[in-house]
Input
Amino acid sequence: MMCFATLAMTSCGMLQSAASSDPVAMTAGQTCGTAVRGLYSAYSDTKTIDMTNATNLSNALALASAYTAINQNKDNAAYRKAFTAGLVASSAGLLTKGTANTFVDQLLGATGLSGLNSSNIAQKANTVSTIVNLLQTLKQ
Output
């Protein structure tokens, strides 16, 4: 009986920590969730993203970094699971376990974020529309 209880506790502990088994992916997801939260806040006020605003620029660059990270690991199920867990944890309720996978799928297809960096962000004409399309997948 004691062996069964120990096994059950160990199994539950392994399930609980499965999503956080890749701290790099979890951190990338958390960074993405924080950026999405900031961009969503700006977007919900004006229905656009002001790319002259330093906070929005910073959040757009963080989102581009998350795009790169998830694309480099798109075939790694454990990475995606940990990334998604971090995304949900830091999105302040904008994303749930149910909606996060759809958002990650949309992020994977957000080619307007490809190669985005601080020196070329102003020249990337489709950055705002890419971000707005992503934000429109969130709850309104």
Summary: The chain has six helices and no strands. The mean pLDDT is 84.
